[in-house]
Design brief:
Elements: E1 2-3, E2 6-7, E3 12-15, H1 24-32, E4 37-39, E5 43-44, H2 45-50, H3 53-59, E6 68-73, H4 77-88, E7 94-99, H5 104-107, H6 119-132, E8 137-144, H7 152-161, E9 167-173, H8 184-191, E10 200-203, H9 209-219, E11 223-226, H10 236-245, H11 255-273, H12 275-289, H13 297-305, H14 309-320
Parallel strand pairs: 3-4, 3-11, 4-6, 5-6, 6-7, 7-8, 8-9, 9-10, 10-11
Antiparallel strand pairs: 1-2
Helix pairs in contact: 1-11, 4-6, 7-8, 9-10, 11-12, 11-14, 12-13
């Protein structure tokens, strides 16, 4: 597949944008583990226009991170176009429009997947954003709003017609949130549509390299997007890359490696966001890093409650010696 000026001879591996998760440190870590393409946390168009300090941090990317996209969301053409122009000034490889987030605070304001109730407006806004910037625009969305409305095949065509250069599809409806299983049959139908020529990226429930390979073999999508399956498990990208390339699957990381990488992640988070924010936001990563590891309950409790950088580092270094 090709996105911006980058070409891949196998399915490209994307790190999905996740709020308060896919910050610069985590993206850099996943990139070092084999992620091909990373995308910022999703950014509210109004906040981006207002130049909120916390938003500026979300826009930063390292040179080695590219190809890199900035994802924006909103519910009207004026603010999304202005936000796209501001985002483009930070030199990402593409702008991604979020028409997929199901969270009430976003979809409830007719942004994210809430806009799937008004496809004509969604298309009009997307067309305006495409025309407002000179770099590629992509879209991330869902298969539909609810069980009675799953227009993703037609919607993908219409997005292609207004200039969108790739589409990422999560195989659930807005109403499903993250319940049940992602339906990859709809993603397959989009990919098999002979009138669609832009890259199709499949998303939803990829939690292992074996699942990634199976979904690609079923659908032959151009890319695979991994979200929650990468939290605490950046190794998933090198594992997926191995199976998709027909090479042996790397060994699962042991406890020492997990603690070492978690320590690297922690140090980068504190350096990027400051001690207070870094300490708080890393807490969502500890349990996934050590999932299935035995006899760590006391250590994990300390990690989740400590407010001291040196103490967290001591704990992680102690775990490496177990």
């Amino acid at each position: 597949m090709q996105i911006a000026s980058y070409t891949y001879d196998r399915p490209a591996l994307f790190l999905a944008p996740m709020d308060d998760v896919t910050d610069a440190p985590f993206r850099a870590l996943c990139k070092s583990m084999g992620a091909d393409i990373t995308i910022s946390e999703f950014i509210a168009s109004d906040a981006l226009i207002r130049d909120v300090e916390a938003i500026q941090r979300k826009l930063k990317s390292a040179a080695q991170e590219h190809p890199f996209g900035i994802q924006i969301f909103g519910n009207n053409a004026e603010s999304l176009c202005q936000a796209a122009q501001v985002a483009a000034s930070h030199h990402p490889d593409f702008i991604d429009i979020n028409w997929g987030c199901p969270a009430k605070k976003i979809a409830g304001k007719n942004a994210g997947s809430g806009m799937l109730q008004n496809i004509p407006l969604l298309i009009d806004i997307t067309r305006a954003v495409v025309r407002s910037v000179s770099i590629p625009v992509t879209v991330k969305t869902r298969i539909g709003y609810n069980e009675e409305s799953k227009p993703i095949v037609e919607l993908s065509e219409r997005l292609q017609d207004v200039g969108v250069q790739a589409i990422s599809i999560h195989g659930r409806t807005k109403a499903q949130m993250y319940k049940g299983e992602a339906d990859w049959e709809f993603i397959k139908a989009v990919k098999n549509n002979p009138r669609l020529h832009i890259p199709v990226i499949g998303n939803g429930d990829i939690t292992s390299a074996e699942t990634a390979l199976a979904r690609w073999q079923e659908t032959r999508v151009d890319g695979l997007m991994i979200g929650r399956g990468a939290i605490g498990n950046p190794w998933i990208f090198q594992q997926c890359k191995a199976l998709l390339s027909g090479t042996p699957l790397p060994a699962e990381p042991d406890l020492k490696e997990r603690a070492h990488v978690c320590e690297q992640h922690f140090r980068m988070a504190v350096a990027h966001k400051g001690e207070h924010t870094g300490l708080l936001e890393m807490r969502k990563h500890y349990k996934p890093y050590f999932k299935g590891m035995l006899n760590l309950k006391a250590y994990k409790l300390k990690l989740l409650t400590s407010n001291d950088v040196d103490e967290v580092l001591d704990i992680l270094q102690t775990i490496q010696q177990l």
